[in-house]
């Protein structure tokens, strides 16, 4: 399962993946995804790739450690429905892990960032704001394991479409928006991240 989370097949060039990702589209909302919930971690920032990288690595390491120890590993199987209202997390009928995934609606105005992971292309992650004021800032990174890199890409595109609809509504109401979805391919983001870390 996680062995297949590798960055990309070395027999393919980056340009091949860019062209494959370019055909992935979202033509309407809502979009429904069946994913495994990897978990959540508190983060210090509301937006940006650098805020989600470490939490995703920690979640994947925890899972790999269990696999290496030959422990039973069951991740919650859930539906993620992405719409202009936000993310609706529902338990899948085949889920065997009860009570570990946060079920319910995460309103669109609580989501500040979304991205297909740059290292594990099957993982989609987003940052959810729990509290935001001049006194305190509290945010959580949520990670979802998709069945393919294309599904991870489609989740990012769907959230981008939802944000686009929401931002148009805010503009009509005279309000601004403060959220971001990275829609560039993961390898392009990884190149930028390397420049950021240098």
TrEMBL record:
Residues 33-165 form the PID domain. This is PID domain-containing protein. InterPro entries: Adapter_Engulfment-Domain, PH-like_dom_sf, PTB/PI_dom. Coiled coil: none annotated. Signal peptide: none annotated.
């Amino acid at each position: 399962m996680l062995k297949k989370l590798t960055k990309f097949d070395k027999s393919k060039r980056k340009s091949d993946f860019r062209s494959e990702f370019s055909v992935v589209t979202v033509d309407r909302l809502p979009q429904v995804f069946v994913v495994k919930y990897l978990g959540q971690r508190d983060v210090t920032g509301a937006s940006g790739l650098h805020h989600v990288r470490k939490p995703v690595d920690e979640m994947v390491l925890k899972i790999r450690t269990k696999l290496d120890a030959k422990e039973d590993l069951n991740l919650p199987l859930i539906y993620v429905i992405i719409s202009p209202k936000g993310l609706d997390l529902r338990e899948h009928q085949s889920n065997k892990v009860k009570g570990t995934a946060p079920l319910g609606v995460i309103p669109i105005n609580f989501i500040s960032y979304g991205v297909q992971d740059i290292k594990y292309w099957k993982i989609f992650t987003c940052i959810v704001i729990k509290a935001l004021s001049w006194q305190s800032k509290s945010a959580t990174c949520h990670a979802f394991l998709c069945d393919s890199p294309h599904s991870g890409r489609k989740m990012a595109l769907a959230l981008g479409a939802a944000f686009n609809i929401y931002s148009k509504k805010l503009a009509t109401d005279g309000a601004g928006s403060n959220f971001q979805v990275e829609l560039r391919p993961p390898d392009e983001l990884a190149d930028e991240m390397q420049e950021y870390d240098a």
